[in-house]
Amino acid sequence: MTTPTNDLIDRAAGALRAALSPDHVVTSGPAFDAARALWNGAVAHRPGVVVRAQKRADVAIAVRTAVDLGVPLTVRGGGHDWAGRALADRGITVDLTGMRRVSVDPVAQVARVEGGATSADLVCAAERNGLTAVTGTSGAVGLAGLSLGGGYGPLSGRFGLAADNILSATLVLADGSTVTASDTDEPELFWAVRGGGGNFGVVTSMDVRLHRVPGLLSGMSVYPWRQAPSVLHTLKDVLLGGPDELTVQVGVVAGPDGNPALFLAPTWSGGGDKSRAEGEKVLARLGALGQPLLAQAGPARMSDVLAGTDALFPSGRHVGIRTRTLPGLTSGVRSALLAQGEALPTRASAIALHALHGAATRVPAADTAFGNRKPHLMAEIIAVWEPGDEAAPGHRAWADALHSALAPEAVPGGYPNLLGPDDSAEIAHAYGPNTRRLLDAKQRYDPGRVFTATPLPPADR
């Protein structure tokens, strides 16, 4: 699709203002700038028109206008996609941040979540009803975007991925029509959106399963770098071999003195007094693997766990991310982490290993579009720097170097939510045995390839 001309953008803005409230169609000004402000401050895309959607009908009008005029269309939810796919230069951006309502049925343990809601919006609403939700590790991330691509998180071992907890999704398709996909209605679309990303329509609401976890425990231990080899060696069988109730994130951050340090962030999601006592023992053992610089663990709310991550990675900094899928914490993986972790380029940069184990691995691979249900670690390599940092190319090179060092240990593919547009080798294998079926669903529901939220393999596969 070619870049729209000024005349075409003016026509699009005029058509949208004629059909919508004029103040919900912006091409400049504070509301426009707010929609452009993404988590990754390095993204410089400038849309031609922003539609500040308040309801599903607004989304449908924006979609039809973009398709009718041949203008690129993007969707902004939480604005956390590091590659900036929430915006397209001189395109139409549907801004869903005005659609963040969450309603909870505490008896059915189900939440209805609008398309612009963040993970924190859902978790906080659930907690007010004595429940919690399966999300990723950050509260500021848009729930829909995270969940449609998979969604590794602290509760995945017990309750599966965020995608596994979607009960239904209502979408606006490329022709402007609305469908609700579930196990019984549009089941093929429902299959595709759970792991296939926002590539089939604009999700304006979802019903998601909630959980009662009275014994939730979480913690954080930070070990000095000299202890990293022994701690990693001890963890090699824990990350993927522990009980469902225990999901552990491990990685590298800057310690209190600014030097690299190894962090360990376990979450225990058992219920009941006996399970809670067991969890306290497990977290205590993990916190005593060496002599940590700090170690804290205890009862937690998921909202606080998510807020902790958000505090470490605030919006506006410049970010480059690479990802690898790893079969485990092998000796080769540990060596690569130790070599590149020691070279952490900035105090804001990090490496995180997310574990897929337990309940998430027991979902049959053919049940959703998510491609890899074997136990594995998803490596998130995060280079972060301040705007104007002249060493930015070196920070990106550090992420690329660890990405390359992990290649001999990695399995084919990668996590679609973190793959960049140039990661062609990993994109080709990202959906594993589900690739052909996913591409057929794309052809069925979006033959014009209007929606490009996350990378899909080439259509000729």
Write the layout of secondary structure elements.
Blueprint: H1 6-19, E1 25-26, H2 30-36, E2 49-52, H3 56-69, E3 73-76, E4 92-95, E5 102-105, E6 110-114, H4 119-127, H5 143-149, H6 156-159, E7 166-172, E8 178-181, H7 187-196, E9 202-209, E10 217-224, H8 228-235, E11 246-254, E12 260-268, H9 272-286, E13 294-299, H10 302-312, E14 318-326, H11 331-341, E15 350-356, E16 376-385, H12 392-405, H13 424-427, H14 435-445
Parallel strand pairs: 2-4, 3-4
Antiparallel strand pairs: 1-2, 5-6, 6-9, 7-8, 7-9, 10-12, 10-13, 11-12, 11-15, 14-16, 15-16
| Secondary-structure class | alpha+beta
Query: How many strands?
Result: 16
| Overall outline | globular
Instruction: Write out the strand line-up for the largest beta sheet, numbering strands in chain order.
Output: 13-10-12-11-15-16-14
Spans of at least 5 consecutive residues whose pLDDT stays below 50 are none
Question: Assembly type of the shown chains?
Answer: single chain
Helicity level: 25-40%
Q: Report the mean per-residue pLDDT as an integer.
A: 96
SSE order, as H and E? HEHEHEEEEHHHEEHEEHEEHEHEHEEHHH
**Terminus-to-terminus distance:** 22 Å
Approximate strand percentage: 15-25%
Largest sheet: 7 strands, antiparallel
Report the C-alpha radius of gyration, rounded.
Answer: 22 Å
In DSSP terms, counting alpha (H) and pi (I) runs of 4 or more, how many helices? 14
